[in-house]
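Anyone able to model this chain together with pyridoxal-5'-phosphate?
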Amino acid sequence: MTPTTELQKPIIKTELPGPKGREIIAADAKYVTPSYPRPDYKLVAESGSGVWITDVDGNIFLDCNAGVAVCSTGHCHPEIVEAITRQTEKLIHMCGTDFYYRHMPDLAQKLDEIVPIEGATKTHFANSGAEAVETALKVAMHHTGRQKFISFFSSFHGRTLGALSLTSSRAAQRKGFMRQALDVIHVPYPNKFRHFANNQPTDEETITRDCLAWIEERIFKTTTPPEEVAAIVIEAVQGEGGYVPAPKGFLQAIRRICDEHGIVMVVDEVQSGMGRTGKMFAIEHSEVKPDVMCLAKGIGSGLPIGICIAKDSIMNWGKGAHASTFGGNPVCIASALKTIELLERELVENSRVVGAYLEAGLNKLKDKYDVIGDVRGFGMMLGVEFVTDKATNEPAPELRDKVEYACYERGLIILGCGANSIRWSPPLILTKENVDVALEIFDQAIKASI
Ligand code: PLP
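re: yes, here you go
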């Protein structure tokens, strides 16, 4: 059987993890760094096809995580496999830092056509999300001659030292690494389900006003004069922080602030980009045009590629200022070009339509269960926040972990984000039939966990 989207239901036939899985987990514990933030459940993958993952013991899971929002076209999409295979037969590596090949300008031109950055752009190629963010930080410093950055609480931008200076979603990511490498000040993110003052729900206008005042009335007038700020770096939808979208008016105000003070607006779309939110880029929901964008994860359908794309008036640094041996690898670019073709052909639209169907189903569960405090997001980037009850909205992280585990036991792969939320980030090929199966399992898992 070749499971793609058709297989009706997960098949769990061994204890989890099974005996072969347990062997691999033991070897991993012996030889692999213990720093990976893996969840309580242990999935040991052997193969993937479409929305289905088969583990080493032959159990088949419905994947609603897509390798953390990476396998946008599903696992081993035949057209992606073909594009990669064809490329490996011709040229695997050349090193774009020193030589030329057509892939780099091909993808850069395609991105120039589709990104919502105004005017001409230039693209730098890297290998990961964190590296794309590093590029954005360097290019903003180089362009402005300034050193300070503004980032948001609960944001995640990667773990390399520059990107880590922006990241603030968990103390474990920072602990042991001493002072920040960069001069970054963190400000509250406009999460309307949890106002930073009292951790309680509010409306978009209030949270937008209060978060903007923090920047304009507080830090600009005290610690962080705006003329010293190189860039404001923001996720249009916070990913690791809990799948929290920023209100449109907030993003528009950040654009205004950047324009007023010559600050570079960097939008990190590493997790939210490439069709995940039902538009090609999440920032398009607000009609804001950033100066710089960071892409990775979903653009390569699983192959490692990171992109920093900027206005060409900003990315106008000189020879040697920034480069990477592997960045822009031709096999990864072949995969990215095919991914964008599939996204434009049907998958962005599928993300919008089937994502709305999933969101409606999750909202029904929110009505049914007092422990679901919030359902939010766009397209196939949906967050579900668990609380002890709707009256108090007290975060329920342990319940979230239990639900995540109970889903795994029933053959559904989902993953937590933030302190007490679950993210839905399925492959963008997910069908309504897949959603029905996933929601039935999610429902059972919640029932079994409360
Ligand atoms: N930026 C965002 C918004 C992310 O979600 C992530 C990873 O989750 C990163 C950057 C870092 O990407 P990577 O893990 O590829 O370095």
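Residues 93-328 form a domain with the Aspartate Aminotransferase; domain 2 fold (CATH 3.40.640.10).
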